[in-house]
Automatic annotation (TrEMBL):
The lineage of its organism: Bacteria, Bacillati, Actinomycetota, Actinomycetes, Kitasatosporales. Gene3D superfamilies: 1.20.120.1810, Winged helix-like DNA-binding domain superfamily/Winged helix DNA-binding domain (1.10.10.10). Residues 79-92 form the RNA polymerase sigma-70 domain. The keyword Cell cycle does not apply. Keywords: DNA-binding, Sigma factor, Transcription, Transcription regulation. Signal peptide: none annotated. It comes from Streptacidiphilus jiangxiensis. Pfam families: Sigma70_r2 (PF04542), Sigma70_r3 (PF04539), Sigma70_r4 (PF04545). This is RNA polymerase sigma-B factor. InterPro entries: RNA_pol_sigma-70_dom, RNA_pol_sigma-B/F/G, RNA_pol_sigma70, RNA_pol_sigma70_r2, RNA_pol_sigma70_r3, RNA_pol_sigma70_r4, RNA_pol_sigma_r2, RNA_pol_sigma_r3/r4-like.
Length: 275
């Protein structure tokens, strides 16, 4: 059944597929049709609410993608998802399908802007020493690396040993995270369609295409041997060079290169096999 037959009439809308069962391309095509349908419905009616709620569910991947850009922040992911959904709803309410702009291109700046305003409104305006600022960054990176190695969240003792600091320093670094203020914020005029957001309209965000690949890679990476996972984490999360990885693991740079090449090839083939 084509998307067109799903939204042409009110009875057909009852047969809309579950948003969770729709792939990326179908979700994009169905969203375009639903936005057109939304312009034909009266706001406040049951049909209008149904179509808008379906659009929200179809485009939740945009929220998850935007939230992932702030994964090093101290705020709970669930809270950030809720804030991102508010931004998604605002984008749906403002989107005009007649402008021939991809919804993802229009929505992402709105969602990201909502997240940045959340950080701005909830962050502390506290000046902290540079030492603690740097510790906060090291702590965030160490937490990610250890989480991949241990396959669970590390405790304070493990973080302290990894960073060669005391547990008191770890507690201090975690407290400093609450004083962190988001950097560049878009101008207030962005809500009225001016400022930085308008510069992005008309451009397709290529990062959206990778959302499914990232989700598919997670179980594949989790199934790798510990050494391969460690090398990947040090290279792509820790951003270490092959020589630095070799020195840390006690192997040669050439050995690290072979591990990376073999592991990436295996992941690529497994990913293609799932398509």
């Amino acid at each position: 059944m084509s998307p067109t037959t799903l939204v042409g009439t009110q009875p057909a809308m009852a047969r809309l597929p579950s948003p969770h069962a729709v792939d990326t391309e179908d979700a994009r095509a169905l969203s375009q049709l639903l936005f057109q349908r939304l312009t034909e419905l009266e706001e406040g009616t049951a049909d209008y609410s149904y179509v808008r709620n379906t659009l929200i569910e179809l485009n939740l991947a945009l929220v998850r993608y935007a939230v992932a850009q702030f994964r090093h922040r101290a705020e709970p992911t669930e809270d950030l998802l809720q804030v991102g959904i508010v931004g998604l709803i605002k984008a749906i309410n403002r989107f005009d399908p007649a402008r021939n702009v991809e919804f993802s291109t229009f929505a992402l700046p709105t969602i990201t802007g909502e997240l940045k305003r959340f950080f701005r409104d909830t962050s502390w305006s506290v000046r902290v020493p540079r030492r603690l600022q740097e510790l906060r960054l090291r702590l965030a990176k160490a937490r990610d690396e250890l989480s991949q190695q241990l396959e669970r969240d590390p405790d304070d003792a493990e973080l302290a040993e990894y960073l060669h600091v005391s547990e008191a320093d770890i507690a201090e670094g975690q407290a400093v995270s609450n004083a962190y203020t988001a950097g560049t914020l878009e101008s207030p005029e962005a809500d009225e369609g001016e400022g930085l957001q308008t510069r992005r309209l008309g451009y397709t965000d290529r990062g959206i295409e990778g959302i499914e690949n990232v989700e598919s890679l997670k179980p594949l990476i989790a199934a790798l041997p510990e050494r391969e996972r460690t090398v990947l984490a040090l290279r792509f999360t820790g951003e270490l060079t092959q020589s630095e990885i070799g020195a840390r693991l006690g192997i040669s740079q050439m050995h690290v290169s072979r591990i990376l090449s073999r592991t990436l090839t295996d992941l690529r083939e497994a990913l293609l096999a799932e398509e």
